[in-house]
Amino acid sequence: EAGDLQIDGDLTVTGNDIKSSTAATAITLTGADVAVAGDLTVTGGNIKNAVTLDAGVTVVGNIVIGSADINEAELEILDGATASTDELNIMDGSATTQATVTLDATDGVVISDGDVMKQALVSDFATYISTNITNGTVVEDDLADDAVTLAKMAAITQGSFIVGGAGNAPTALDAKTSGQILVGNNTDLVSVAVSGDATLAANGALTIAGDAVTSAKIDDATIVEGDLADDAVTLA
To answer: What is the DSSP string of 86-149?
Structure first.
């Protein structure tokens, strides 16, 4: 019969379905809660109004939001993720998230290692760059003034120093031979022994050979009485 059915107690359905084949709205429940002890299956229709669920919901199939199909595999990608919204925005590369930072060796940078995303230390970049500089590519402008210390220079033989050599190439000159002096020959700088009537000791003492100084080497009118030995001047 047409009209409303009012049940003051419980309604138990022992079959499988409550069907309404002609009405647009099969069943309207107002003013009370509906408790479903088993499974609630909605087939071929929609839950159009807001629904509040106090307990968990198990979905066997997919959830469709608008045109987006969300399935179990996609949701499990986020399982265990601890990234915040701000951190995800930074990974998006938005210009509004850029900032000037002071890098430290222990800071991390996200890179793609093959098909795996990883965090690499800034110190790893320094190691990679320094070990992969092509030989002969560092030029003068790459070096700061006063940046190269003696400790960074190639070792040279003790007692040697660097001079301009053939072709203006830096050359190590051995200047440690005892009793020798450095002499310029209008082309190069050489270490030579003192020759002639004098010798030079390792301590710098200069010795003039005997009878090497003649009167021709003495300026006129420079000999005074104190320079003469007693009885040295004869009548001849």
So the answer is: HHHHHHHT-GGG-------TT-EEEEEETTEEEEEEHHHHHHHHHHSPPTT---GGGSPTT---
